[in-house]
């Protein structure tokens, strides 16, 4: 970005360019996941570690909800909590993710205990929660704009995993179908907010850096998975170790 503010259309184009370059669908681990070249234990490791991201998203959203200044904004953001936490036991995205880990043969109590997380997973996700808690409302909302790109990766993931893994079923992947409508709804709101409120060059730079940061969080999580579960001999102490049988 220049020292002068750009138009909302130019800002949006710059945000979309970040996704085209940095979104984690480009990561080698994700390409392997979608392409069917991972083993079942490697897919288990992905689902287990990703659970921490999924279960912390409502906490992230709650920290922002508490700071939003108007009822209109709070009502909009509150829908995200319901999407992930549900409005009754066993509903919502987090519960559906546990059905994924169940379907992959992971013990639910072990997944929920978080005992098997990679250290880098914990650090990356916690950094995201802290970012949304501590940065400006504008930056916090902008960091959610990875949802602009998620329908593409969800479609690739569902199609690829169903095609290539005989241990995956449509029921196992039930988490993803609602996200095909939830994510565009959420990203439309966040993008409109950013287009309206990022008016100065400084604000626009902060918005772009927020999206870069979020892309970095997702990329770092896959770096850790790739290093621990694709490269032999690198699983850190205490992390999930697949059953050798």
Attribute tags:
single chain; 245 residues; mainly alpha; Heme Oxygenase, Chain A; 69% helix
Describe this structure in words.
The chain is an all-alpha fold. It is built from 11 helices and no strands. Helix 3 packs antiparallel against helix 4. The mean pLDDT is 94.
List the topology elements:
Blueprint: H1 8-22, H2 28-35, H3 40-65, H4 71-85, H5 93-103, H6 108-113, H7 119-134, H8 137-142, H9 150-164, H10 176-197, H11 201-229
Quick structural gist:
Helices cover 69% and strands 0% of the residues. It has 245 residues and is mainly alpha-helical. It catalyses: 6-(2-amino-2-carboxyethyl)-7,8-dioxo-1,2,3,4,7,8-hexahydroquinoline-2,4-dicarboxylate + 3 O2 = pyrroloquinoline quinone + 2 H2O2 + 2 H2O + H(+).
Task: Name the beta content range.
Answer: under 5%
CATH class bucket: Mainly Alpha
Largest sheet: none
Judged by helices, strands and strand pairing, the structural class is mainly alpha
Q: Give the N-to-C terminal Cα separation.
A: 53 Å
Name of the CATH superfamily: Heme oxygenase-like
Number of helices: 11
Oligomeric state = single chain
The gross shape turns out to be: globular
Overall pLDDT score: 94
Rg from alpha-carbon coordinates: 18 Å
Number of domains: 1
CATH architecture: Up-down Bundle
CATH topology: Heme Oxygenase, Chain A
User: How do the helices and strands follow one another from N- to C-terminus?
Assistant: HHHHHHHHHHH
Could you name the ranges where pLDDT drops below 50 across 5 or more consecutive residues?
none
What's the helical proportion of residues?
A: 55-70%
Number of strands: 0
């Amino acid at each position: 970005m220049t020292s002068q503010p750009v138009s909302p259309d130019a800002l949006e184009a710059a945000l979309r360019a970040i996704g085209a370059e940095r979104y984690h669908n480009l990561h080698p681990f994700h390409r392997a996941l979608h392409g069917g070249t991972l083993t079942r234990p490697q897919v288990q490791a992905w689902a287990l570690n990703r659970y921490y991201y999924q279960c912390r998203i409502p906490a992230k959203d709650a920290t922002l909800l508490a700071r939003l200044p108007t009822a209109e904004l709070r009502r909009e953001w509150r829908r995200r909590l319901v999407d992930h936490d549900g409005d009754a036991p066993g509903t919502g995205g987090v519960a559906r993710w546990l059905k994924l880990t169940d379907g992959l043969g992971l013990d639910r109590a072990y997944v929920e205990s978080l005992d098997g997380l990679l250290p880098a997973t914990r650090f990356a996700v916690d950094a995201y929660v802290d970012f949304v808690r501590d940065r400006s409302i504008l930056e916090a909302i902008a960091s959610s704009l990875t949802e602009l790109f998620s329908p593409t990766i969800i479609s690739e993931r569902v199609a690829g995993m169903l095609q290539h893994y005989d241990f995956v079923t449509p029921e196992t992947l039930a988490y993803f179908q609602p996200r095909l409508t939830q994510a565009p709804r959420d990203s439309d709101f966040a993008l409109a907010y950013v287009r309206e409120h990022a008016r100065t060059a400084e604000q626009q730079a902060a918005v772009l850096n927020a999206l870069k940061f979020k892309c970095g969080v997702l990329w770092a999580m896959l770096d850790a998975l790739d290093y621990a579960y694709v490269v032999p001999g690198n699983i850190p102490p205490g992390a999930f170790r697949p059953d050798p049988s």
